[in-house]
Design a protein that fits this description.
Oligomer: heterodimer
Structural class of chain B: mainly alpha
CATH topology of the largest domain in chain A: Arc Repressor Mutant, subunit A
Distance between the termini of chain A: 30 Å
Shape of chain A: elongated
CATH class of the largest domain in chain A: Mainly Alpha
Radius of gyration of chain A: 22 Å
Number of strands of chain A: 3
Strand content of chain B: 5-15%
Number of domains of chain A: 2
Structural class of chain A: mainly alpha
Shape of chain B: rod-shaped
CATH architecture of the largest domain in chain A: Orthogonal Bundle
Distance between the termini of chain B: 64 Å
Largest sheet of chain A: 3 strands, antiparallel
Order of helices and strands of chain A: HHEHHEEHHHH
Strand order of the largest sheet of chain A: 1-3-2
Strand content of chain A: 5-15%
Number of strands of chain B: 3
Number of domains of chain B: 3
Chain lengths: ~170, ~260
């Protein structure tokens, strides 16, 4: 039997309000791509969805839906949980918490990489300091680079904390 | 033909005078001409170098006779110097621009880690570096379309990152980053707390509302999901508190960074 459940009208009305809040009023998904957010929001309320259902709920095109589904799968937010006899795939979003923080949670490696690149940039600036230091804008750039440099170990610390919260939650 | 030694001395003098104009930030032949005209027509003028130059021309009959030639010498010299200066300035600007681009790249990467789109992060990066910009300047720096720049500027203003002010005598707005880094961190910290509180209230009220529909299809799954969202908001709040209490943010706020 399919995991997918229809919603009664009253529940669907509430769902619409919730999705609207998440997308337009909550600021929890600040700056993310709108089609991606929209599909993610419906996975938050429904847990299980097929392409066809997403199309009915969001009105987005098949191409867009399939593109965003691929991204959601790739980032580990949803997974394929079922294939029907007609070949229809059911996607499932298990962890609500992860859906909110996935980008940051997936980022540890990238933060380390980010730190390395930043060190390179700092090195380049130091090397050319004599030629650059009197130019307009140099101080500002230096200030921003220093700020970013200290933010790297800080981000890693935050990541560890987030990881611990998740394991507490699961354990 | 003017004696070459005289030309040398003459060129040295013109160059010296011109150097002053470069320092003042003017390096156009027209500016120099105007200064010269003003000097000649104003007996109280005190520019010793121009005086020296004029005297020099007067005292060197041969030079004076060929004044047109001299004048073209002056023009050539100034043009050459100003070109050198302009090219140098352009190159210097290029050097800084390279670092700016690399920095903005960092903002974009960092933004992507948080799931923000490229346009949004690039614009934040521009404001961190430049502080105040008009919509046109943002477009020029980023190459993004008018619509996309305007949408993002509005969003950033709404989030409290930017403040906008009408530029007097125009219909244009100047967008400024809310002061300095410390204010930014304080603003976003408080803002995020507010976001979290607002979301908590919203979902609490929805959970209550949902309990009126216990017999409806979809009740069970939606109420489970809402309770998971509440759990997330708890973690979110802990993280925000942790960030706001950290040495990192305290250092930024006290201006140590």
């Amino acid at each position: 039997m399919s995991k997918i459940q229809e919603f009664d009208e009253e529940i669907e009305t509430m769902e619409k309000e919730i999705v609207d809040f998440l997308l337009n009023k909550s600021y929890l998904f600040t700056g993310q791509k709108s089609t991606f957010m929209m599909i993610k929001a419906y996975f938050l309320t429904r847990k299980h969805l097929t392409q066809e259902m997403i199309k009915n709920l969001t009105g987005l095109s098949r191409g867009t839906i399939s593109q965003e589904l691929n991204r959601l799968v790739r980032e580990g937010i949803i997974h394929k949980s079922d294939v029907s006899s007609t070949g229809e795939i059911t996607y499932t979003l298990d962890s609500v918490e992860f859906a909110f923080v996935h980008a940051f949670y997936n980022a540890q490696k990238e933060i380390v990489e980010f730190g390395k690149k930043l060190t390179e940039l700092k090195h380049d600036i130091q090397e050319r300091k004599e030629n650059l230091k009197d130019l307009k804008g140099f101080d500002k750039i230096n200030q921003v680079v220093n700020l970013l440099t200290v933010s790297v170990p800080f981000s890693l610390k935050l990541y560890n904390m987030l990881e611990k919260e998740f394991s507490d939650l699961k354990g | 033909m003017v004696v070459s030694e005289n030309i040398k001395e003459f060129n040295r003098l013109v160059e010296e005078i011109f150097q002053d104009y470069i320092e003042k930030g003017d390096f156009e032949i027209n500016v120099f001409k105007e200064e010269l005209r003003a000097f000649v027509s104003n007996p109280l003028s005190s520019d010793k170098r121009l005086y020296k130059l004029i005297t020099y021309i007067h005292n060197n009959k041969k030079i004076f006779e060929k004044f047109d030639f001299l004048w073209s010498q002056i023009e050539d010299l100034i043009y050459e110097k100003s070109l050198e200066d302009k090219i140098k300035k352009k190159l210097d600007q290029g050097k800084i621009k390279e670092f700016e681009d690399r920095l903005i790249n960092f903002f974009v990467k960092a933004g992507q880690l948080k799931g923000q789109n490229v346009t949004f992060s690039t614009i934040i990066g521009c404001f961190l570096i430049h502080n105040s910009l008009t919509q046109d300047q943002v477009r020029e720096l980023t190459g993004f379309s008018k619509g996309s720049v305007s949408t993002n500027l509005n969003a950033l203003e709404e989030y409290g990152f930017l403040k906008k002010k009408l530029i007097k005598g125009t219909r244009k707005y100047l967008y400024s980053f809310g002061g300095d880094f410390s204010r930014l961190s304080a603003n976003t910290g408080a803002f995020k707390k507010e976001v979290n509180e607002k979301a908590k209230k919203f979902f609490q009220s929805k959970i209550k509302e949902l309990n009126e529909f216990k017999d409806k299809k979809g009740y069970k799954i939606l109420s489970e999901r809402l309770s998971d969202i509440m759990k997330f908001l708890e973690i979110h709040k802990k993280l925000i508190d942790h960030i706001m209490d950290s040495e990192f943010i305290k250092n930024i706020e006290s201006g140590k960074l």
